[in-house]
Amino acid sequence: DSHRASRQSRRVPAHRDASRRGRPVRFFRRDPRLGIAPVGARELNRRLTSVDATFLYAEKPTQPMHVGGCMIYEGRLSLEALTEVLNARLHLLPRYRQKVVFPPFGLAHPTWEDDPDFDMDSHVHQVALPGKAGKAELQAYVSDLASTPLDFDRPLWQYHIVRNYDGGAALITRIHHCYADGIALVLRVMPLPADV
Question: Which pTM value belongs to this model?
Answer without folding.
Answer: 0.73
